[in-house]
Design goal:
This protein has 290 residues and is α/β, with parallel strands linked by helices. 42% of the residues lie in helices and 17% in strands. Strands 1-2-4-3-5-6-7-8 form an eight-stranded mixed beta sheet, with helices on both faces. β1 and β2 form a beta hairpin. It is globular and about 45 Å long. The termini are far apart.
Length: 290
């Protein structure tokens, strides 16, 4: 497994929270909540410094507890993430900030808006998962995995280890890419993108699969806050060809969150949204920080 760099802070609880920064150290601060299972190295794929530095943004990507190099937190809830974000922002000397959540990171980004509204000026979600109790949202593979993680965590940990082993095969990686809808399929034919995507998963499980499996369990539970009471502006971007999460979930979020500004791309998938519209997404967020 490749060794990736990281920085870290020691939280008041004694836990270590690892993170990476991309872009300009003096740019507008955006805290990025990676997908599930993923890690801080998602930034190398979606927010590489050479691509975002010219946008005058400072993108901070922490590993959530139990993934990457961040310590596991037994019994953690989605709403607990806001406290970690607040401590990290304080340690880095950041006051107001934007929070961006991708895929399974979206609930954690929205939790920051709910729990620390005085610090979060705007929230963005890209290809977001929807709450488990959202009506008319089909139960996709990730939701089924979440329920399985709730009732048979040891089984899911074993399956995750098997998946990690299988993904070390280049043949399996290529076959996996064929299962994605366009335009993600074409993107995943590029070895750098395919390997970068898998590196996020591998790094999430660097110190075991416990954190990744617990997070799948969390996404199959109520989130712990009311979307209808969010006060911060929420921006949403969703590809209608997304094969990872249902676009119906994004429509539910857009219709439920007060004042949500949603953009739906009919010809984009899951990863292609952020890769093809990164400048637009970051520009909209930083514009709200002015």
């Amino acid at each position: 497994m490749t060794s990736f760099e990281h920085q870290q802070v020691r939280l008041r609880s004694g836990r270590t929270l690892a993170y990476l920064e991309f872009g300009s150290p003096h740019g507008a601060p955006i805290l990025y909540c990676h997908g599930t299972p993923s890690s801080r190295v998602e930034g190398y794929l979606t927010m590489p410094t050479e691509a975002v530095a010219k946008l005058d943004v400072r993108v901070i990507i922490p590993d959530r507890p139990g993934m990457g190099c961040s310590d596991f937190l037994a019994g953690r809830r989605i709403v607990d993430w806001a406290s970690d974000v607040l401590e990290l922002a304080d340690a880095l000397g950041i006051g107001s900030l934007a929070v961006l959540g991708s895929s399974g990171g979206a609930p954690f980004a929205l939790a920051c808006a709910a729990l620390i509204p005085a610090r979060v000026r705007v929230v963005g979600v890209v290809g977001p998962v929807a709450p488990v109790d959202a009506p008319d949202v089909r139960a996709g593979g990730s939701r089924i995995a979440g329920r399985l993680a709730s009732y048979a965590p040891s089984l899911v940990r074993a399956l995750t280890r098997l998946q990690l082993h299988a993904l070390r095969s280049e043949g399996v990686r290529r076959q996996m890419a064929k299962g994605f809808p366009e335009p993600d399929r074409t993107l995943f034919q590029r070895a750098d993108i395919r390997d970068g995507f898998i590196a996020c998963f591998e790094e999430a499980c660097r110190n075991g699969t416990r954190g990744a499996v617990w997070e799948q369990h969390l996404l199959a539970q109520p989130w712990g806050f009311d979307l209808r009471e969010l006060k911060a502006p929420v921006l949403l971007w969703q590809g209608e060809r997304d094969g990872n999460v249902s676009s119906a979930g994004a429509h539910y979020l857009a219709n439920t969150i007060p004042g949500c500004i949603a953009t739906f791309y009919p010809d984009e998938g899951h990863l292609s949204v952020v890769l093809n519209h990164r400048r637009e997404i970051l520009g909209e967020l930083t514009g709200r920080l002015q």
